[in-house]
Hints:
- This protein is mainly β and 476 residues long.
- It contains two helices and 38 strands.
- Among the domains are: 26-143, no CATH class; 211-332, YVTN repeat-like/Quinoprotein amine dehydrogenase (Methylamine Dehydrogenase, Chain H), CATH 2.130.10.10.
Amino acid sequence: MRKLLTGLGILLSLSVGTVMAAPLPDNIQTFVKASFPDTNFRFDGVVILPDNTVYLPLIPSKFNDDGQVKIKSTIPAGLTMSEKPDAVILSNDYVLLKMLTNSKGKNTVVNLTVPPLELRTGLLPQDMLVPKNFIVPANLKNIIGNLSITTTHDTGLVIPVAQSKESAVVNSIKDIVPLQNKMLYITSNVSKNIQVVNPAKKTADYAFYQESTPITIKGYQDFLLVTSYDKKSMDVISLADEKVIKEISFKTQPDEIVIDEKNKTAYVSSGDDASIYVVDLNNMTIKKQLKLNGMCEKVILSDDGTKLFYNDKQTREIWAVELDNDYLLKEIGRFPNVSKIAYLNGKIYVTSRTKSRLAIIDYDTMGLMSENEITAKPVDMLTYKNDLFVLGAENKTIDVIDTAMDMKTQTIELTSNQFPTKMTRIGNSNLVLVTDAKAGSYSILDLDKKAVIKTNQLDTPVNSIVIMNQIKKIGK
């Protein structure tokens, strides 16, 4: 069955999202990149240079966008952008204010007896995340607008975690290159908070407080995206600030999140609304709402980013959405107790948790090619090159399927895990973390060697895990 989804291309109104973000104009970004090519232009307008120097933009009430941007003046005078002045007044009257630290350790901006007109009449982006402990000189108070200024008593999301007596390094990771300079962000069934863990330790350094229990957490650049139960919004947590920088609102509770890094897009499902929302990660706003058939769950994105697959948890039907073909909706078929969907080389792979079976479907014909026995209680699948790795919870094993022949070539044993539930790849490396919902541990699987190369202990079991680069905190 094929049909075109109706209403898929509709741009959502502002009532669906929060206040519009305020990224800097392209010509200002081009100007800054000329001196600092790797600058991070955050979607709320904040400019973060490669060395973590932060500039806050002041938006003029009126400006002449004459194309190329140049420096009108700087504070101190006569400096170039590469010299990182305290303030840069541009030819279109935008101002870049460098974030400074005063003698009391608080974040502030340059304090002048008589500030230039551009500083006195400009306004900070009104959806900007205010840096922690930020204060503004009295004669520049007008730049604040309606922003809420945090105080020294506002700790943001960070809460302490009780330290284990054995919180030192348990297994050296110096030989595990993809885990070096990384941090793990973990959700668990024993706490609603997100644990922040050094991968070489068993105890979290601290946690991010959560009012509701997370459903899904995903990482993108220096941000965590979090959906939670009984909450009709998705939190965007800035790891540099350790705060919720934005809440993206939905009509109903959002559930699963799938990230397309290449196209800077997130697909956020809502089973209650029978929809998948397309979120533009450049500005963290909803771009489209895809109305689907049924209550979507177990959403995956094909490796080439052209197709979404999901299971309807009411009818047990599997559907595909062709993102590059006017969102054509294709019915795959009905399967019992679907635990995971995968797609590789033109074939759809579906596991049944209760039947311990792997169904293989030809995408072009939608014909069932074969149905094979697989590791008991399959709970997760992962594609790598031409192999399919199927994780089984009951026997603590991973079956390796050669997708060229669709035959099992190897079984990997996970002897240290009690109830392994998820496989999470470390970036684009050949390593995967196999995590456990009952035991406090994770195994490191080498996809090329098809072997477990190390196991580390944790103080908490893992529902889901996100692996991110260590981030230098703003203002610290």
